[in-house]
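lol ok so funny story. i was supposed to be doing the assay writeup but got distracted and ended up predicting the structure for this chain instead. priorities right. anyway since i did it might as well share w the group, maybe its usefull for someone
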Amino acid sequence: MKLSGVLLMVLLLGVGSDADIQKIPQDFRVGALQETSQDFRVGAFNLRIFGQKKMTDTTVVATIVRIILRYDIILLQEIRDSEGTAIDVLLNLVNSVASSDPYAMVISERLGRSFSKEQYAYFYRSSKARLVKDYVYKDPGDRFEREPYIAVFESSYTAVSPFAIVGIHTKPADAWEEISLLVEVDKELGVEDVVFAGDFNADCSYVPNYRWEQVPLRTDPRYKWLIEDDVDTTVSNTDCSYDRFVIAGAGMESSVLPCSAAVFKFDTEYDLTQEEALDVSDHYPIEFTMLPPKFKHSIPSLSIAAFNIQIFGETKSGKDDVMDILAKIMNRYDLVLIQEIRDSRENEPAVKELQDLVNRKNPDPFQYVISERLGRTSSKEQYAYFYRPSKLELITSYVFEETQGDYFQREPFIAHFKSPTTYVKEFIIGGIHTQPDEAVAEIDNLVDVYNAIQQKFDVENIIFTGDFNADCTYVSKRRWSDIRLKSDSRFCWLINNDVDTTVKGTDCAYDRFVIAGNEIKEGIVPYSATVFRFDLEYNLSETEAALVSDHYPIELHLRTLTDENEFRKAEILSSAGQGAHHNMTRGFIMVQAMTAISLLFLQRS
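and the output, tada:
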């Protein structure tokens, strides 16, 4: 054994004295290994030049191990180790911690045109996923710097089985071309349900906005992008959405838990400085969660909408053609929030006329509940909920009472429903039409409304919806950081910022759904939250459509679980997964890291 190897072992392992132990920060010391049951989680992580050098830093290795243990399957990228041993040591270290539920690994050959070649690797829990095959894509024209590495998995924990993961780390200068080529890769997979994952370099100077219309992976409706363009996946001071998940296939679409696709900010989670985090990587891991197996078969069972009808009162209700279109729109749904009711007449006859028209020859009629007239000015408005009693039981409704100030121009209108036909059996819906110039503050204060509702009803599952005025000049990009409803992980935004909810020539995502609560997230039909373009559906000109409203309705569907026969009848495919993960202090991993790294150097000595 070389002296350097002995000295390194001593330095890494220490002599074990009390004084040595006291030098280790408290959160680095040995702690209890806690295991909690969670859904099946998939990750992708660019480790940034992972090799021998990085494996000698025990703090860095401990953090990497903690990150890996979050996932049931994780794609690791930018492995640069000419000796080919660092990744094996990492796997052994991970399994020394996760000995009761160990990982297996598959790794690609070394890829790249330059001397600095890279490898991909998949770590996966062998108890929860079975590798069917893995291979490097055979690129006929040498169009990829590093050809995609494909792994096909089967799993009894995921109803969508088999599924393929296509890992890629694009060359920055060729990013948009390589991303475009993934459609060709998809056609040759022979697997319907696919996840494309990795460091796409899909933002900033590498893929500017004008390029997206040239990228078929973006324009083809088969592909759904889970990480939005405004999400920063970098640890440094850049603000770029380089790392992405793109999914394809009905089964995969139905199995992804809404809003679970996210960046895992390990610096915040593990209380690291930016410098310490950059020692680990300049990228954050990205992740998403797959729903449990019971969601394999489900069908839509309740449709919900929110519609700003734009000055709905005596004038509009007197236009028969407009009222006919409104009635058609209303009858698409089981629950509708109507906003901007301005009818100064007693007992709001415009709303009653709409109810009569909607219910005419309707075997499943609506009832409605309406708020008081709200607003600080003389031009006050009302909210109303139209709902079908055959599907929903109204428990109570009320206008939110502000106790800490006067933040809302029109306070949210809250309704509490029981829903026997859906997976989520009880939920609360809060409708709001914000004052445009105060939109940031009003949206932010919906967090306080949520907290108050929870205290009042002890109901976790809540939908906020309505005309938030949440885009363009009213909520600019720089203001999103001021909105707790956006930054608080409890809340899931279902209408993205790039969706146009306006009828006229503007392009603004004013109208939104925001949900909170595990059951409501699980109970949403994936990708059902959308805009209903009634002008296209009913063949209206822009002028005719504008007579109805300057907003489109937004809509979503809740689902019920069913058996395979009903599922096949509805022609809906849903898939899911379930797994277990480890939460632990860094101390336990640090000790394991020191031992494994020392063994590595002893072997090399």
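The longest helix spans residues 439-457. The domain at 298-566 is CATH 3.60.10.10 (Deoxyribonuclease I; Chain A).
back to the writeup now i swear
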